[in-house]
Specification:
single chain, mainly beta, Jelly Rolls, 2 domains, 8-stranded antiparallel beta sheet, 3 helices
Length: 283
């Protein structure tokens, strides 16, 4: 009877640097999964039988948005975010100028205004407050909009990891920065509406967006569940472990989804190579 060799997550991470490890498979004793190394990333199967893509120890590019008209259309509404209110999304962001008061800096969103259902995440830099904000809106009744607003959450032009999680109808919306919980609000409300725009990365506003991001984004991921703090830490830490995601836009010189399902369409964003400028990727 053949069995998988048992290794811890730390031992598996170390093998990511061994080019001869391609094709090896192990039982991950840390999270009870089976992992296989394809030469680029660990591909894993969870203990419940679900497929997941594991870790990506290399990162060569980030996407740069000019703040004027650049964005990526994911070509998918991601309407499960508001229809279930049980979701997470994570990304790395680096602003070109976090002190600018010219406009809001939108990281992502699938809605345009508070009167439409959907989710938006942005940096409100129009005043001295400098709030990092996220809203989950069921639609026309703005009284049911759930906001998390964190003043002075970002005070530099360095890379920061942002994670937003939601725990379901009536549950709690949380925002994390660099692995720490920085804000939360309860009372999420689901909706049966399907009148969403496609999810956009680096902008918000439907077919002709008017609100954009000035800066870099990298590793934008969406999940159909509430991530734990431990999972968020795993994503932040080398070699960046993404388990059971819905879509993952690594922005490795393209707008493709690592799941192969929801490839995006790039509208003007440029992909900056780490080999050219090491400051333009978060790791």
């Amino acid at each position: 009877m053949s069995t998988f060799e048992v290794k811890t997550q730390a031992e598996i991470n170390a093998l990511s640097l061994d080019t001869s490890a391609k094709g090896r498979a192990y039982f991950n004793d840390t999270n009870s999964s089976i992992v296989a190394w394809d030469g680029t990333a660990w591909r894993s199967w969870e203990s419940d039988g679900g497929f997941a893509t594991g870790s990506f120890p290399s990162n060569s590019y980030s996407a740069l948005f000019d703040g004027a008209n650049d964005y990526i259309d994911t070509n998918k509404k991601f309407d499960f975010l508001q229809q279930t209110c049980e979701f997470s999304f994570t990304c790395w962001v680096k602003f070109t100028d976090h002190t600018s008061t010219a406009a809001n800096q939108f990281l992502l969103g699938n809605t345009n205004t508070g009167s439409q259902p959907g989710v938006m995440c942005w940096y409100d830099n129009r005043s001295a407050a400098k709030q990092l904000r996220v809203v989950v809106s069921p639609g026309a009744d703005s009284a049911n909009d759930i906001f998390v607003n964190v003043t002075s959450a970002i005070t530099d032009n360095d890379w920061h990891h942002i994670a937003v999680t939601a725990s379901g109808n009536g549950g709690t919306l949380k925002m994390y920065k660099d692995g720490s919980l920085i804000g939360s609000n309860s009372g999420l409300t689901t909706t049966t509406s399907t009148s969403y725009h496609n999810m956009q990365i680096g902008a918000v506003g439907g077919a002709s967006p008017t609100n954009f991001l000035g800066g870099h984004l990298d590793e934008v991921a969406f999940f159909t569940r509430e991530l734990t703090l431990s999972e968020i830490d795993d994503i932040r830490a080398t070699p960046y472990s993404y388990i059971n995601y819905t879509s993952l836009y690594r922005l490795e010189n393209n707008a493709n989804d690592e799941s192969g399902i929801n490839n995006g369409t790039n509208n003007g964003a440029t992909f900056v190579a780490k080999a050219t400028d090491s400051t333009n990727t978060p790791y």
